[in-house]
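Batch queue: ligand-bound targets. Current item pairs a single chain with nicotinamide-adenine-dinucleotide. No template structures supplied; prediction is de novo from sequence plus SMILES. Inputs echoed for audit trail.
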Amino acid sequence: MSKCVLVTGGAGYIGSHTVLALLENGNEVIVIDNFSNSSPKSIDGIERICGKRPTLIQADVRDSLALESAFTNHDIAAVFHFAGLKSVEESVQNPELYYDENIGAALNVIDQMRIADVKTLIFSSSATVYEPSEAPPYAEDSLTGPKNPYGQTKLLIEQILTDLAGMNPEWRIGLLRYFNPVGAHSSGSIGEAPSGEPNNLMPLLMQVGVGKVEKLSIFGNDYETPDGTCVRDFIHVVDLARGHIAALRFLENANGAHIWNLGTGVGTSVMELIQRVESATGMTIPTEVVSRRQGDSPIALANPSKAFNDLNWRPEYSIENMCIDHWNWQCLHPDGY
Ligand SMILES: NC(=O)c1ccc[n+]([C@@H]2O[C@H](COP(=O)([O-])OP(=O)(O)OC[C@H]3O[C@@H](n4cnc5c(N)ncnc54)[C@H](O)[C@@H]3O)[C@@H](O)[C@H]2O)c1
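Prediction returned. Tokens below.
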């Protein structure tokens, strides 16, 4: 089995772990990435782990000619579309940028797939599409209603792809709603290396751990949760990558658009995560409690039953594994790749 998969954004955090999973699964892989938030060194890391390299194309995924030549020069059977911008805060400050980049990229991918007659697509969606006032855990049919432009772009792309599959039943589309990906490959050869300041909790915690950031701000400790801090559903990035392989397998026998939550269904509070990191690293993490951040929901938790049942997939890594592996990566690469 050597189906060729085109992975947009394959040098990034989740993309690189998924490229590794695809290569380990026996697939041929073409990565297209402009390295706006990653480094080509992630590809070296993949090769160190599995002894194989994907073909790398450095280009913007909105570049029609680059995509067209990728489809012409390779026998591509499916596309995993990760490339895009992902900061909620930045999207609030610069919404046009997010609509332009994320929607523009998705439309170009769809267009070039249509021209090349490739009809299997897995798209990186997000738990941010859910209406935060919905009672958790969220199932795929829970109410949606993103509260920021980033989440809006994810929901809009889901709608575009659902309409596309509705009109063209031969398309096979997986819409994967990720919860909170953390961790790194246990070798420490690939991991999360954002350009600039991280704004997700785990990378920030890690930077406090290595002394690059003075202290961690906890946004509110008066929520109606067991310890007053927000609760999230953290999932190991290697489990998330495995979920993509399971979705690809499912789509071999199923037409249409399918939504799956990829989470564990287990909640961990911000305070608990800090304690877990402290025990994984043996360090004390300086923290300060500041006021709540607008738009944060107290609890965001997946009901992952549909993915468990349809995909025959289960997360395997514990929260301890997530902290240890992320810390191992951070210690080996304090400045990224
Ligand atoms: N990390 C999370 O917490 C999270 C949660 C939910 C959904 N997602 C989604 O998953 C996907 C991957 O996220 P990630 O955490 O790996 O992010 P990432 O920034 O590490 O990876 C994205 C990759 O896409 C590349 N890229 C961005 N714009 C591009 C363009 N126009 N052309 C070519 N390459 C481009 C970047 O250089 C990077 O390598 C994104 O779509 C993100 O919105 C991420």
